[in-house]
Write a structure and sequence with these properties.
Radius of gyration: 48 Å
Largest sheet: 6 strands, antiparallel
Pfam families: HTH_18
Number of strands: 16
Protein name: AraC family transcriptional regulator
GO molecular function, one term: DNA-binding transcription factor activity
Number of helices: 26
Shape: elongated
CATH topology of one domain: Beta-Lactamase
Distance between the termini: 123 Å
Keywords: DNA-binding, Membrane, Transcription, Transcription regulation, Transmembrane, Transmembrane helix
Structural class: alpha+beta
CATH architecture of one domain: 2-Layer Sandwich
Strand order of the largest sheet: 3-2-1-6-5-4
Organism: Domibacillus enclensis
CATH superfamily of one domain: PAS domain
Length: about 775
């Protein structure tokens, strides 16, 4: 910037001498051109005019013959490439080959390509590109392409042309012929790329100019340069010649072209290539064509030299006066660098122009970088401010820092707006979790565009939870509440129309100090959770929210929680899903605010986690260290919470315990059955047996029923009844003693025995005794059966 300002000041100082310099240069040009004009006119009228016409005709005939030769070589390359595409080796069979396993086929293809490469001298390389699952490029070896290199080859296949000429994306623009394979297929899966030797092409192109000087180039149908050979040492010559040809469409086949004091004989023609037509142009300086007039030219040089010496003497005084300030300007621009005005073919004013452009580009680049860095620094400062990182700063210090970043905060108040998207996962939308970042970016852009028309000073912030916020700075005591509501309505409408999702907008209360900005955004974040979990657009104005509205009675469905926990214990996945849906819907019906629904969901997750821990599974291992509470807090819709519970929490747990349940259950049940068989007469309980085998009562009860087929109590009761029936029939023990022997009190034993057997124990003993007596032989000696 300093260099540019200094140069601009110097130019302004010299602006007053502009007329003098202009007049002096005109005088010099007039004096220098008079001898040349006299000599040139004399030579033109007496010698060159007639000779030029004859030599130009001869020149055109030579170019036509050499152009035909070049056209035939291009035809041969096109014909050979098309013929290769019809060979069976390059057919549909390539699509299914595993080139890694079938390395012999890979080697044969590489050899074939090398053989085809030697088919013509202009062919530098022949490659085979296959757009399969992992794109492959065969050249001198087998290559698997990445996405960047694959883009160019895949683009040529998608152009819809079976064969076409193109240029490789390198610095030289090397020409290549691309033939899709299979030939004549509407859905090609690869291509043969024939790369031409650029240096040999240039040497071939030079033959269109029979002389060592001049320029020759080839253009496509869009007048884009495909190849050029330029020996004029002037980069602008080809561009100027193209413009002249476009301007003179009628006489473009052969004409004379004047460029920087030199006359060129220009001849052009057409190459009919596949799918397009190329134009070749050959330009040779007339000084080369008129070489037989060398003697006359030397005479002209001698005469012109004398005239130029005379012109130099006459213009020396004027040029000396002009060159002094220009040279000083050049030295200042070079700033101590080596070199003088006019070095490398540049005059003083060209150097001034080049230096000016270079300094201007540097200035623009530095300004752009500075602007980008300032925006990043501003955003970083604002995020740190919202996080409370500057709580120890005074209000004065914060004000100075914000003003240093470009904010005008003197006599200003502040307000915040928080915007969150909902309904992203509804069937009406077309987005998934992967699209949340894109939606947040689009929302921030909509906010930026809308806020430009509503607020004078604002900053849009994108948060890590894919929501967006905005800090508004406005004059103190100004009424902007209506503007904030209007902004909210316009953003909501735009998001609905463009992204087909719903919006929850939270408007903060106004504050007057910078130190209150962190609290401002914290309140909007908490306030946004007062939204109803219904999937609809909502506007929460914290200035209008009363304490009664924000402090509602909290309802928690404890009975449903117990049913869910019991279903988890029993592993009943079919019952768990509808129970969780009922649980969340009841939360929504009783306390529709998102903050209360999420708190209830977090409480349910804590209860399920407690059950998981109790079963011997650690949540950290089960959930791979994920922060499940944070994931749950990101679910803003009831049906998404239900899906999250079943797929992310319960399903992994059931899968975890299911694998070990069969073996462990059988081991536990066998140990418990052995204990029951030995201690059935004692006071056995499900809890004591569970402690014995190192599990919880719920898991033991479930395993017992899976292995034995009946629950724990029924099995113990059945075993005791069998022992009681054995004692009643085989001993004379009193019923009270039998009750104690099998682990019951007398009164309870009678009830449970009657319930199981249908009759009291005393009656059972009498029946058994009568049956036993009836089993003796009758008078006939036969055994009597009952």
């Amino acid at each position: 910037m300093k260099n540019i300002n200094a140069m601009w000041t110097m130019i302004n100082r010299r602006r007053g001498s502009g007329n003098f310099q202009r007049k002096s240069f005109i005088l010099i040009l007039l004096i220098a051109s008079v001898p040349g004009l006299i000599t040139g006119l004399s030579m033109y009228w007496f010698v060159i005019q007639n000779v030029e016409q004859e030599l130009q005709t001869l020149h055109e005939n030579q170019i036509d013959q050499r152009a035909k030769n070049m056209d035939e070589q291009f035809n041969y390359i096109e014909y050979s490439t098309s013929r290769w595409a019809f060979e069976p080796r390059f057919g549909e069979g390539l699509r299914d080959i595993d080139f890694v396993k079938e390395f012999e086929e890979t080697y044969d293809i590489t050899k074939t390509l090398l053989l085809l490469q030697s088919n013509h001298a202009l062919m530098k390389d022949v490659e085979l590109y296959l757009n399969v699952e992992k794109p492959i490029l065969f050249s001198s070896e087998y290559n698997v392409l990445n996405k960047e290199r694959n883009a160019f080859y895949e683009k040529n296949i998608g152009k819809g042309k079976s064969i076409q000429w193109t240029q490789l994306p390198d610095q030289n623009g090397t020409m290549a012929l691309v033939q899709n394979i299979p030939a004549a297929s509407s859905q090609p899966f690869g291509s043969i790329i024939v790369t031409l030797d650029r240096q040999k092409l240039i040497e071939l192109l030079k033959t269109l100019t029979p002389y060592d000087k001049g320029a020759t180039f080839i253009m496509n149908a869009d007048n884009e340069l495909l190849l050029q050979s330029n020996s004029t040492q002037n980069d602008g010559f080809v561009s100027a010649l193209k413009k002249e040809m476009n301007r003179n469409e009628e006489s473009r086949n052969a004409f004379l072209f004047d460029y920087e004091g030199q006359t060129y004989s220009v001849s052009s023609g057409a190459f009919s290539r596949i799918n397009e037509e190329w134009t070749y142009v050959s330009a040779a300086p007339m000084s080369s064509i008129t070489a037989p007039l060398l003697f006359v030219s030397r005479l002209i040089i001698v005469i012109s030299t004398g005239a130029l010496l005379l012109a130099w003497l006459l213009s020396w005084v004027a040029s000396k006066q002009i060159s002094s300030p220009v040279n000083r300007l050049i030295r200042n621009l070079l700033d101590g660098q080596d070199g003088k005005p006019g070095v490398a073919g540049n005059d003083a004013f060209s150097l001034i122009e080049q230096r000016w452009e270079a300094l201007s580009e540097q200035s623009t680049l530095l300004q752009s970088r500075l602007a980008e860095q300032v925006e990043d620094i501003k955003m970083s400062f604002l995020l740190q401010l919202m996080q409370g990182s500057f709580y120890h700063y005074s209000e004065h210090d914060l004000k100075k820092r914000m003003e240093g970043y470009g904010w005008n905060v003197e006599g200003k108040s502040f307000a915040a707006i928080d915007i969150r998207l909902t309904g992203i996962h509804d069937s009406a939308g077309h987005f998934s979790n992967k699209d949340e970042s894109l939606l947040a970016f689009m929302t921030a852009n909509i906010m930026e565009e809308t806020a430009d028309a509503v607020f004078d000073s604002h900053t849009v912030i994108r948060f890590s939870d894919f929501s967006a916020g905005m800090l508004i700075i406005y004059p103190a005591q100004a009424a902007i509440r209506k503007d904030m509501h209007r902004f909210s309505e316009e953003v909501t409408r735009a998001v609905n129309d463009i992204m087909n999702v719903q919006v929850t907008v939270t408007l903060s209360k106004p504050v007057d100090t910078i130190k209150q900005i962190p609290q401002l955004f914290e309140e909007t974040r908490i306030g946004s959770r007062l939204r109803n979990v219904d999937n609809r657009n909502q506007l929460i104005d914290l200035q209008l929210v009363t304490k009664e509205e924000s402090a509602k009675d909290v309802h928690y469905p404890f009975p449903l929680e117990k049913e869910i926990i019991q279903a988890v214990r029993m592993g009943e996945m079919d019952e768990i899903t509808p129970l969780i849906q009922r649980f969340l819907l009841e939360l929504q019906e009783k306390s529709n605010a998102e903050i209360y629904v999420q708190q209830g969901a977090i409480q349910l997750y804590s209860s399920i986690q407690h059950e998981i821990l109790y079963s011997g599974v650690h949540p950290h291992e089960l959930f791979h260290g994920k922060n499940m509470i944070e994931e749950l807090s990101q679910q803003r819709e009831v049906h998404r919470m239900a899906v999250w519970f079943t797929t992310e929490v319960i399903a992994p747990y059931l899968d975890k315990i299911k694998g070990r349940m069969n073996v462990e259950a059988k081991r536990m049940v066998e140990a418990v059955m052995m204990k029951i068989g030995q201690e059935y007469m004692t006071d056995l309980s499900l809890e004591s047996c569970a402690d014995e085998v190192g599990t919880n009562p719920y898991s033991l009860s479930k395993a017992f029923k899976q292995v034995v087929g009946i629950n724990f109590i029924d099995y113990v009761t059945s075993l005791r009844m069998e022992k009681a029936k054995e004692l009643l029939t085989s001993t004379d023990m009193k019923i009270n003693d039998i009750a104690e022997r099998v682990g019951y009190r007398h009164s309870y034993f009678n009830r449970i025995f009657k319930k199981q057997m249908g009759i009291p124990p005393s009656q059972f003993r009498k029946q058994r005794e009568s049956i036993s007596k009836g089993g003796d032989q009758d008078e006939s000696g036969h055994e009597r059966h009952v």
